[in-house]
Amino acid sequence: MVVWLRARYVPLLVRVERHPRVVITAVAVLTVGGLAMLPFFGGGFVPQLKEGHFVVHMTAVPGTSLAESLRMGGTLSKLLLALPEVRAVGQRVGRADAADDIMGTHSSEIEVDLKPLGGAASRRVEAKIRDVLHGFPGANFAVNTFLSERVEETLSGYGAPVAVNIFGSDLDVLDAKAAAVAAVLAKVPGAADVLVQSPPGSPQLVVRLRRAELARWGLDPVTALDAVRTAYQGQVVGQVYDAGQIFAAAVILDPALRADPGSVGALPLRNAEGTFVPLGRVADVFETTGRYSVLHEGARRVQAVTCSVVGRNVASFVADAKRRLAAAVPLPAGVYLDFAGSAAEQARSTRDLLVHSALAGVGILILLSMVMGSARNFLLVLANLPFALVGGILVVLASGGDLSLGSLVGFVTVFGITLRNSIMLISHYEHLVGVEGEIWGPAAALRGAEERLAPILMTALVTGLGLLPLALGSGAPGREIEGPMALVILGGLVTSTALNLLVLPTLALRFGRFTGPDNRTAVPGT
Questions:
Q1: Under the phi-then-psi rule, with left for phi > 0, alpha for psi from -120 to 50, and beta for the rest, what region is 311?
Q2: Residues of the chain with CATH 3.30.2090.10
Q3: Which residue stretches of 263-402 are H helix?
Q4: At residue 106, what are phi and psi to the nearest 5 degrees?
Q5: Taken in order 93, 98, 99, 101, is the CA torsion positive or negative?
Q6: Rounded Cα gap, residues 210 and 335, in angstroms
């Protein structure tokens, strides 16, 4: 096999070396074109995970009863079960008594379990689920996968890839600005599941005491409010002993009366003289709306708007949203916006990865310059890096144009492999001239490239064959991070190996400087 490859490689390399200017120009154009496409790539911190399972968050009007939420969830579950790809649907409403979250009975999580599907089929099912939700009235919805939601909650505190936090001190202003932000986000292309996390509108019953009437009937505010609390919340008044066990005894109004807002005004209050006075005679009792939760972050009041992104990358969506919000939502003094979520985390992670890679790269370059001795040969080793970059860029472009964290790791990996192959070729040229006394020229360049053909190809083939299963199954569940990494490495290996074997010898012949055993330096291009 190696003999067959050498028989075809050497004539091809000879033809390439005859036209160095054409080859160098073509490679330069290809490299510049690939680098020019980098700013147009987007991406997300973590790609969408294909788990075969979706979590649908259903949020009705605050104050919706448990029975009504269950009724709505049952109707929606039947619609989702009608999809042929859905295996099972389950609903969870509100929160447990000892839970640490703030979900009320108006909030539900509907878990949708899918039959075994591939990556593309899973995306189609998600689109079908969104179509069902779009036609379901009376609630807002958000769709996510379990692991993606846990990652997003870790990053921003919310189960969505994009979160806009509105900070300020006036709750009414925060509510108004949150509604304006939600309206703008809903119009950004790719926006889905736009939700205000703590919307106002929770129904409340207000008891406002009239002090003059209280004094007239011989009542005080504390007595009146204690009676309301005892009637509707309950008050422990003693203990009951039964078979060695102690049970608390509480006084509370009948459940049927507590469920009737109209009966609050009829609650009897007893004054010191033993006279019973209806609550409605000494207080104004009326219905209103309020907040069932007030969000805080870092000891600051905050209102949050979250959304998902469909059909485009998160980074470009956030950039578009920032421009639109800056133009359409004026903010008063003391109120400001802050974006959180996977886009912000991706920017930080990318920055950290680039900084650490740059520091490691500087150390590697210093060591290489010390070993190579010649600045020209040192630059020849580095010349192969853009070749690897071009291959990775072409693969990213062909796979959708999204740069994820896995893709960046793939670029770092392929750069290391490419440097190894370049060092292998240039160091062999130095060995031929410096140790074996070969005169540097076309014959030495051909000999060195031919002798290093097998090692360079073996490095690329072993790496490529090992990554090929990951690359071929990059769309399968569980390979959302490793798949893009494998594709970038394979793309970079293809271009860097080809250019290493064909272009680098031409560049070395024209620009290389190699010292013979008599310490005489060969003239480039001779």
A1: left
A2: 202-290
A3: 279-282, 314-328, 342-372, 375-382, 385-398
A4: -80, -10
A5: positive
A6: 36
Beta bridge partners of 91: 110
Q: Give yes or no for a contact between 303 and 7, defined as CB atoms under 8 angstroms apart.
A: no
Q: How far apart are CA 442 and CA 505, in angstroms?
A: 9
Give the Cα separation of 228 and 279 in Å (integer).
9
Whose tokens are 């509108």? That residue is: 201
In the structure, what pLDDT confidence band is assigned to residue 523 with cuts at 50, 70 and 90?
very low
Residue 232's identity, in one-letter code, is: Y
Q: For residue 226, is pLDDT > 80? A: yes
pLDDT in tens, 65-90: 888 999 998 999 999 999 998 899 99
State the fold for domain 202-290.
3.30.2090
Q: Is the CATH number 2.60.120.10 carried by domain 2-36+373-511? A: no
Q: What pTM, to 2 d.p., does this model score?
A: 0.61
DSSP letter, residue 266: G
The two structure tokens encoding residue 400: 């959708």
Q: Measure the CA–CA gap between 154 and 341, rounded to whole angstroms.
A: 9
> In angstroms, rounded to a whole number, what is the distance separating the alpha carbons of residues 16 and 318?
46
140 CB neighbour count, 10 Å cutoff: 15
Q: In the structure encoding, which two tokens stand for residue 353, read together?
A: 């990865």
Quick one: which of 383, 393, 483, 469 has its CA closest to 423?
383
Fill in the amino acid letter for 54: F
Lookup result for tokens 């119009």: 187
- The pLDDT of 420-425, averaged and rounded, is 86
